[in-house]
Write a structure and sequence with these properties.
By secondary structure, the chain is an alpha+beta fold. The protein has one domain (about 1-139). It contains 1 helix and 4 strands, in the order αββββ. The protein has one helix spanning about 1-60, and strands at about 75-80, 90-100, 105-115, 130-139. The chain has a 4-stranded antiparallel β-sheet with strand order 1-2-3-4.
């Protein structure tokens, strides 16, 4: 009778240790995946900011009080990014220009948004990341 009890205790102990090991591996894996997605999300935001900076550069190149808006201010302009951000290339930049007149001075106000999304992944998939950055600028 004593031998059978020892065998049951040993099996129970092995099952509990195996379950704890499985839980620890699962927890570690999910934490690593979460951390990776945080990094990818930060890179996506930086790619979107690169699109905003691209538009800001071109807006700054237009003459002050220009009679026409910057010609590149369109919906759906594609901006290539490289390096660690290449997975989000191209970044889609949308721009809308509005004419304003303040005290006889022509001012163009640009509403710019940039969307960076992982290339090749579909929305809803595990590897899909999308970030949007917006800015308003005037010249």
């Amino acid at each position: 009778m004593q031998r059978g009890f020892s065998l049951i205790s040993a099996i129970f102990l092995l099952v509990v240790v195996a379950a704890l090991g499985t839980f620890a591996v699962t927890l570690s894996t999910s934490q690593n995946q979460s951390q990776t997605m945080d990094i990818v999300g930060a890179r996506a935001y930086q790619a979107a900011l690169a699109g905003i900076e691209w538009a800001a550069f071109h807006v700054a190149q237009t003459a002050a009080s220009a009679p026409a808006a910057w010609g590149g201010c369109v919906a759906g302009a594609n901006v290539a990014v490289a390096g660690n951000l290449a997975v989000f290339s191209p970044v889609t930049v949308n721009c809308n220009a509005t004419l304003s007149n303040e005290a006889g001075v022509t001012i163009w106000v640009y509403d710019v948004s940039a969307v960076a999304a992982t290339t090749g992944a579909l929305p809803g998939s595990a590897n899909y990341v999308e970030q949007v950055a917006t800015a308003k600028m005037a010249r």
